[in-house]
């Protein structure tokens, strides 16, 4: 029951405005993962950036099971399997960014898309989380059944990830 596993891997690109750039981001994520991308909408209006509520401003793909693990390993290879401790949160999630998609193995430069990066978010869980998520007879799970930051770090190390040392500026 204490075995940590990947629940999902989410790839995300926030563009900020609808149009050609958004379509290129959608094509990029579909090319990386082989799955269909979903447009994300603005939740609030922001007149400074000329964003109205309901505008399409980003693209995301959620991957699960073996596909998620395969894409995660390719994305980790793009950042040389090194992640900072600041990329982990207290509930067992890991997030990092890939600066340029051509760093991902198997990806080639596409002049139509241009140069773009994307974010990767990994959600880790332990067995038994369904008890908390189900609709009928749901119940809370104890703290030891949730993934902690040290457990998430150990899981990522088992995938071959190296933790970067934080630079202290003076």
Description:
- The chain has a single domain, classed as Ribosomal protein L5 (50s Ribosomal Protein L5, Chain: A), CATH 3.30.1440.10.
- With 170 residues, it is an alpha+beta fold.
- Helices cover 25% and strands 26% of the residues.
- The strands form two sheets. A five-stranded antiparallel beta sheet has the order 2-3-1-6-5. Strands 4-7 form a two-stranded parallel sheet.
Quick structural overview:
The protein is of the alpha+beta class and 170 residues long. The protein has helices at 20-33, 65-78, 130-133, 149-158, and strands spanning 4-14, 38-41, 56-63, 82-84, 93-98, 118-126, 162-164. The longest helix is centred in the N-terminal third of the chain and has 14 residues, at 20-33.
Q: How are the strands of the largest sheet arranged?
A: 2-3-1-6-5
Helix content: 10-25%
- Measured by DSSP, the beta-strand proportion falls in 25-35%
Can you name the CATH architecture? 2-Layer Sandwich
Largest sheet: 5 strands, antiparallel
Tally of helical runs: 4
The total number of structural domains is: 1
Q: What is the molecular shape?
A: globular
Model regions low in confidence, pLDDT < 50 over at least 5 residues: none
Average pLDDT confidence is 81
Report the CATH superfamily.
Answer: Ribosomal protein L5
Could you tell me the radius of gyration in angstroms?
A: 18 Å
CATH topology, anyone? 50s Ribosomal Protein L5, Chain: A
Which secondary-structure class do the elements indicate?
alpha+beta
Q: How many strands appear in the DSSP assignment? A: 7
CATH top level is: Alpha Beta
What is the N-to-C succession of helices and strands? Answer: EHEEHEEEHHE
């Amino acid at each position: 029951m204490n075995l940590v596993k990947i629940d999902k891997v989410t790839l995300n690109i926030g563009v900020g405005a609808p149009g050609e750039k958004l379509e290129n981001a959608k094509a990029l994520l579909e090319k990386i993962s082989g799955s269909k991308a979903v447009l994300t909408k603005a939740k609030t209006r922001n007149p400074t950036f000329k964003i109205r509520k309901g505008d399409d401003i980003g693209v995301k793909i959620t991957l699960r099971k073996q596909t998620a693990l395969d894409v995660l390993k390719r994305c980790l290879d793009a950042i040389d399997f090194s992640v900072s401790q600041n990329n982990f949160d207290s509930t067992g999630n890991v997030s990092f960014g890939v600066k340029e998609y051509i760093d991902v193995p198997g990806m080639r430069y596409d002049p139509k898309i241009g140069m773009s990066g994307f974010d990767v978010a990994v959600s880790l869980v332990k067995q038994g989380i369904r008890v908390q998520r189900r609709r009928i007879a749901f119940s809370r799970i104890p703290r030891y059944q949730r993934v902690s930051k040290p457990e998430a770090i150990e899981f990522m190390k088992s995938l071959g990830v190296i933790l970067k040392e934080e630079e202290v500026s003076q």
